[in-house]
Design goal:
alpha/beta; ten-stranded mixed sheet; two-stranded antiparallel ribbon; 9 helices; 39% helix; globular
């Protein structure tokens, strides 16, 4: 299994330098091409709200053009000469942005995005809610928190839960796991389930070994705050990346993330590779 095509999602109106650095470094190590994508919605004209001056609409269009050109220039400057088979895909759409990105992701093996620090419930025209994106992609997603400029892969932790989402995430992560210096499979379980959990993570470690990846197996007793406990273990283990399944459900067309998934994506200080 190869990771031949990376898609990096650039946010408009802000610096994407760290994200592009990570995408370029991964492309080099994986021998992959990179597709850059930026999406936004134009100003909506709702006639029942009354007249909107033409100059306001023109200003919105000019701002979109300027932001798209700036993102394209940053993409080309970071990857154009370094990754010959790179491609730029801007999209102006009336679709929800996560839905548009999910459509673009059909040609990618891995999508790379950042946690949007500027996200506001009142601004869905420029900024993408990472939970919506992860739950709709149908592709693994590498989520990069603010301040992270390099994915070292010295130690990768798999947050195991015996579910289809986690199996999918680990399978999708194989190309990155082969680059890792160390891999540890961790399950946090209730006290009375620790013996069974030990058997599960040993099975996963054995499966990884058959794919040429040496992995250690570890279990820990639940303390009631599984996300916090997992984060503490990862700090102790000096992990660079967490691989995990993403859990949630749809409610009135909005994706609602489970607590551990939400903490992994929005509060973590390290990268997370997740799949749903």
């Amino acid at each position: 299994m190869r990771c031949a095509t990376l898609m990096v999602h650039l946010q408009l109106g802000c610096s994407n330098a760290a994200l592009l650095s990570i995408a370029g470094d991964l492309a080099d190590r994986l021998g992959a091409c990179v597709i850059g994508v930026a999406v936004c919605q134009p100003m909506r004209i709702i006639y029942s709200d009354g007249y909107i001056p033409a100059e306001i609409i023109d200003q919105d269009r000019q701002q979109i053009d300027a932001d798209m050109k700036a993102a394209h220039a940053a993409f080309r400057a970071a990857l154009g000469d370094r990754i010959p088979a790179s491609e730029w895909r801007p999209a102006i759409t009336y679709l929800p942005l996560a839905e548009q990105l999910a459509k673009e992701a059909r040609c990618a093996d891995l999508v790379i995005t950042a946690v949007d620090q500027k996200l506001s419930m009142f601004d869905t025209a420029r900024h993408v809610e990472v939970g919506d994106l992860v739950m709709q992609l149908g592709r693994p997603c590498l989520v990069v928190p603010a301040g992270v400029e390099r994915l070292a892969l010295n130690h990768v932790v798999i947050g195991w839960k015996d579910s289809g989402e986690t199996r999918r995430a680990v399978s999708d992560a194989l190309p990155l796991l082969r680059l890792a210096g160390r891999v540890t499979v961790i399950e946090i379980a209730a006290e009375d389930d620790l013996d069974d959990a030990s058997g599960r993570v040993k099975d996963v470690a054995f499966w990884l070994n058959r794919h040429g990846i040496a992995a250690a197996a570890l279990t820990a007793a639940s303390t009631g705050d599984d996300a916090g406990h997992l984060d503490a273990i990862m700090q102790e283990q000096r992990a660079d990346l967490i691989v995990a399944g993403a859990y949630g459900h749809s409610r009135l067309r909005e994706w609602v993330l489970g607590g551990v998934t939400r903490d992994l994506l929005l509060k973590a200080k390290r990268c997370a590779l997740v799949a749903h």
